[in-house]
Amino acid sequence: MDYKKTNAPTNTVTRDMIALSENTGNVYETIRIIGKRANQISVEMKGDLEKKLQEFASYNDNLEEVFENREQIEISRYYEKLPKPTLIATQEYAEDKVYFKNPTKDKEEF
Questions:
Q1: Secondary structure (3-state) at 50
Q2: Is residue 21 within 8 Å of residue 90, measured between CB atoms?
């Protein structure tokens, strides 16, 4: 997933949680869904970052280390400028891009 192409804000936004919880009917369940999705996004972003930084892993000291550190710093800055996983997850939820189900509610319907 390309996180830079998401239309999630990069700063904190105040949201009406009651309006967001119209799909579930429960504010706490909505927060749980957004939280789980944010954890998934966070793990994926961390894996991407680690994979990119592994390319620069050096186990010996040399003069080129300074230049490699600059590239690592640029990559780290890129990830720091991205929206936080919670903001991305909230935006996905607001746009109905998150699939969720509650097994306990499914049992009650039968």
A1: helix
A2: no
**Nearest-CA neighbor of 10 among 93, 78, 98?**
78
Rg, C-alpha atoms of the chain:
19
The pair of three-digit structure tokens given for residue 23, joined into one six-digit string: 């799909």
What pTM does this model have? 0.77
Give residue 30's identity as a one-letter amino acid code. Answer: T
pLDDT value of position 58: 64
Beta strand spans in the chain (E): none
CA–CA separation, 100 and 38 (whole Å): 13
Label residue 32 by pLDDT band (50, 70, 90).
very high
pLDDT of residue 2: 67
